[in-house]
Amino acid sequence: MEIKRADRVASLPPYPFAELARLKQQALADGVHLLDFGIGDPDQPTPAPIIDALCAAARDPETHRYDESTYGPPEFLSAVASWFQSRFGVRLDTDGQIKLTIGAKEALAHLVWAYVDPGDLVLVPDPRYAVYSVSTKFAGGSIYEMPLLESNGFLVDYDAIPGDVADRAKMLFINYPHNPTGACADLAFFRRTIEFAKEHSVIVCHDAAYSEVYFEGRKAPSILQVDGAMDCAIEIHSLSKTYNMTGWRLGFAVGCSELVGGLTKLKSNVDSNAFPAVARAGAAALSGPQDSVDRMRALIQQRRDWLVDGLRSLGWPVRKPDGTFYIWAPVARGYTSADFAALLLRDAGMLVTPGSAYGSHGEGYIRLSLTIQADDVQRYIAEAVERVGRLGLRWD
Ligand SMILES: Cc1ncc(COP(=O)(O)O)c(C=O)c1O
To answer: Which has the closest alpha carbon to 177: 203, 216, 142, 144?
Structure first.
C-alpha cells in the first residue's frame, strides 16, 4: 500500500537541527574530535530542589490523573502570577490571563492554529526560530519576513513594513532576547510594537523563552509592561532555559484574555495539560529561591566572554550578545553561511549552525551555542579559538 504524507508535511524542509545531528554523527563516526557549538540545550542539570519537588509530587497519586483544570493547576497559575508580579511588576489574573503550556514551542505552534485562517498573513522576524513560519504554513497562512539588521540592533523596523502589508497582517511574532542574534529589546521598542499593532489591528505574540538569559544585570522587559498590551498581546514563557528544564516540557502563555482563551480552547482539543507532577515542580521552581538562575546567567556570560574575546583576538569582528545562549558571528570573506559552517566542521572539527537556517537575512552569519558539554569549558573554548586561528581566515 502506498502511504502518502499530507502536503503540509511532505513539503517541509528538513528540520535544521536534524541535519546538524546527522552531520555530528557522521563527524564522530569519522573519528573527528568534535567541538560542538550546535544546538542550544543547557548542559547543566535542573536544580536539585526542582527535582525533589517532582519526586514528591510524583508520589502523590493525585498527580497520576488527568488535570481537568482549564488553564492549568491553580498552584501553577498562582506561582506564575507571583513570579510575573515580582519580575515585571505586572499583575495577571489567574482566571483567564495565564495558560500552562507544554513548553514554548507547543504554545507558539498552537497559537497560530487558534488565530490564523487559510490566506491570513503573519509577520515574522528574519532571522527567526522556525516554528512561527512553519506553523503559519501548516495553518494555510502566508508569511511576510521582517528583516532584522545588525545596523538596527536586530530590532524590527516597523516603518519599513509597507502599509498594505501591515493592514493585511493578522498576527506578528517577535522574540527578545532573540534567537539566533542574541539581541535584546527595551521597553521603548515594545511600546512601538504595541503602537504598530493597534494602528494596524495586528495580534502580537512575543516569544520570551529567553527572558531570564540576559547579561550584565540588564533585565529583559516583558511586552506586558506596556500600557495597552493586554488588549492585543500574548507573551510565551518557558521554564526550559531558565531552570535547565528543556526535557521537562513546561511553559506558560500570558496576556490578553481573548488570546489566552483562544489558545486554551484549541489546546483543550489536542492535549490534556502537562503531567501534574511536572506542573507542581514548575510552581516550586518559580516560587523558590532564584539563585540557580543567577548562577546560570553568570556561567553563560563567562563563556560568552571567553569565546567572543578569543575570536576577536583573531581579528574576527564578533558582537557580544546581550542575552540568550548564542553568538551570532559574521562569516569570513568569500563564504556563504553553509560553506563556512561546512569549512569549520571539515577543517576545524567545529559544529556550528549556518545563519541561513534561520531565514534569508541569516545569510552571512553562523550561530555558535554556548551550552557546551565539557569538563573544562574554558579549555574547550580555547581549543576552538586555536583551531579557528589555524585556518588563517580573513574578515575584512
Ligand atoms: C526562540 C525560542 N522559542 C521557543 C523555544 C522552545 O522552548 P521550549 O523548550 O519551551 O519549547 C526555543 C528553543 O530553542 C527558542 O529558541
So the answer is: 216
